[in-house]
Amino acid sequence: AKKLGKDQFAVFEPAMRESFQKHLQMEADLRRAVLRHEFELRFQPIVRLRTEEISGLEALVRWQHPDRGMIPPMEFIPLAEETGLIVPIGEWVLREACRQAARWNSRRAGQAPLTVSVNLSAVQLERADLPRLVGSALADSGLPAECLIIELTESLLVDHRPETLRRLEEIKALGVRLAIDDFGTGYSSLAYLRNFPVDIIKIDKSFVDDIGDLPAAAALTLGIIQLGQALQLSTVAEGIEDAGQLSELTDGNCELGQGYYFAEPLTSVAMDNLLFADPSP
Ligand code: C2E
Ligand code: CA
Ligand code: CA
Ligand code: CA
Fold first, then answer.
1. Which of 141, 162, 161, 91 is nearest to 121 (CA)?
2. Which of 161, 251, 257, 263 counts the highest number of beta carbons within 10 A?
3. Is 105 exposed, middle or buried (0-12, 13-18, 19+ CB in 10 A)?
4. Atom of ligand 1 nearest to the CA of 72
């Protein structure tokens, strides 16, 4: 790639220059954040819709910036992907999620173990050592592979290379399950359901949002649930915010769900309380 010379920089409009400088600053901040471990995880319960018992947790990353406060993932994941910093960040997320889930499960002895779902970026899947990393995160934490779910987005599967499929199969061979995130928002959903070793479909929040108001959204949601059943996949509805949405989904036989109606993403301390608080009056 050609380097930007001084004179090329001069053609930038002031607004462009400002946004370029912001971008550089953000990149420097993000590099420092990796070195100083400025990331935290939140955990959102995934609930069995019929009984409302917790079946698992989704790990969601946050950046605790020293000056700017808590930065949500949508504001730094794209930059992290562009710069490759998603690789060390993603490794930390995976290891920390497995470690916490193993800790919670050891305290829940006698109860069904919780699953933990970890979001993976396409950039992480380009790395040949990903299956080894997943195996090492499981071994180091002691979390059984059956308890780990890797979430992939549709876009990741659309422009795939043969290595991607091989890597996913290696990860599946460990006993880890794969989920398709934001299902229904891409454009070749059905093709990759046939081609990829997927276990779980996560129905995008946009369908759930409109389920009570738009007959088309309700019909599509029910269609996705039935598709999942026909293929023997679990279905998880995302972004459930009210009782009306919950009852539509339960009536449609959706197995699992998550959303503010049940709980927001929680700190590990808040999750400790939710899972182990004494049920005192
Ligand atoms: P996602 O994987 O689709 O995660 C669900 C998002 O919806 C989360 O936002 C969650 O907080 C939010 N959410 C859950 N329930 C509700 C609800 O009832 N209403 C509304 N309005 N929102 C709800 P969050 O935590 O800001 O994460 C945004 C996205 O960032 C995630 O979308 C995921 O694509 C990405 N992301 C988060 N953590 C990671 C990570 O560790 N690695 C990678 N590669 N991406 C991540
Ligand atoms: Ca997700
Ligand atoms: Ca999603
Ligand atoms: Ca909406």
1. 91
2. 257
3. buried
4. 26
For 113-183, where are the alpha helices, taking DSSP H only? 122-125, 130-141, 154-158, 162-173
Distance 78 CA to ligand 1 centre (A): 13
Ligand minimally distant from the alpha carbon of residue 185: 3
* Amino acid code (one letter) for 103: R
The tokens for 79 are: 């930059």
- Indicate if ligand 1 lies below 6 Å from the C-beta of 56: no
Q: Output the DSSP codes for 91-105.
A: HHHHHHHHHHHHHHH
> pLDDT tens-digit profile of 206-222?
999 999 899 999 999 99
In the structure, ligand 3 is a single-atom ion and the residues with CB under 5 Å from it are 181-182, 238
Of the candidates 42, 30, 168, 173, the residue with the CA atom closest to the CA atom of residue 97? 42
Q: Is the CB of 259 under 6 A from ligand 1?
A: yes
Predicted confidence (pLDDT) per residue in 126-153, tens digit: 999 999 999 999 999 999 999 999 999 8
Beta strands (DSSP E) in the chain are 39-48, 54-65, 69-71, 115-119, 148-153, 177-183, 200-203, 234-237, 256-257
Distance of CA 202 to CAs 27, 162, 188, 222, 235, Å? 31, 24, 15, 13, 6
Q: Is 72 a pocket residue for ligand 1 (Cβ < 6 Å)?
A: yes
**Does ligand 1 have an atom closer than 6 angstroms to the CB of 200?**
no
Establish whether residue 77 lines the binding site of ligand 1, counting it when its CB lies within 6 angstroms of any ligand atom.
yes
